[in-house]
Design goal:
mainly alpha, 5 helices, about 0% strand
């Protein structure tokens, strides 16, 4: 068993765990009461999708690390991009679900989208499988970006999430 591969695959979950706790606290109440587009995925879909995406991006980072000679070779730049996209990914949940700052969340996820696209291309240049593992991630972040924008436009920057009859 390659512990570097396991560690790299699990790394994205480090920030996902606190994010999921923030999300769970805000689904009932705030999130269920704000306006959302009809085309949004069901709430139950997010957990399984993110689990697969986090594992895929983590393993992709290992492939790039291995084939790109770690942080001292051509993988250094792509791995720096990977770290920055991971930080942006982890930052979105506290901004959206924790602070309820929808405009700020849209700004974070827009930067994330660009970073994921550039990171995926840079990974592909070192290891094609790693780059391709970013394709479903970019697709999901594209959907999440559109969803974040739509929710912001329907609710304003900082909705209180109170039911409409209150």
């Amino acid at each position: 068993m390659d512990l570097k591969a396991v560690g790299a695959t699990l790394l994205p979950f480090v920030g996902a765990i606190p994010g999921s706790m923030i999300t769970r606290k805000n689904i009932k109440g705030w999130y269920e009461n704000i306006k959302k587009p009809e085309w949004r995925p069901p709430n139950w879909a997010f957990g399984p999708v993110w689990t697969g995406l986090y594992a895929g991006m983590g393993y992709a980072s290992y492939l790039v690390y291995k084939d790109g000679e770690g942080f001292n070779g051509p993988a250094a730049g792509p791995l720096l991009l990977y770290g920055s996209q991971l930080a942006l990914n982890w930052a979105w949940t506290p901004v959206f679900f924790g602070l309820h700052k929808l405009k700020g969340a849209f700004a974070v996820i827009s930067a994330l989208w660009a970073n994921v696209a550039i990171c995926g291309i840079s990974f592909y240049n070192i290891n094609k499988t790693a780059g391709l593992l970013f394709a479903p991630y970019l697709a999901w972040v594209s959907l999440a970006t559109a969803l974040s924008y739509s929710i912001w436009k329907k609710n304003g920057d900082n909705p209180d999430g109170k039911p409409a009859n209150q």
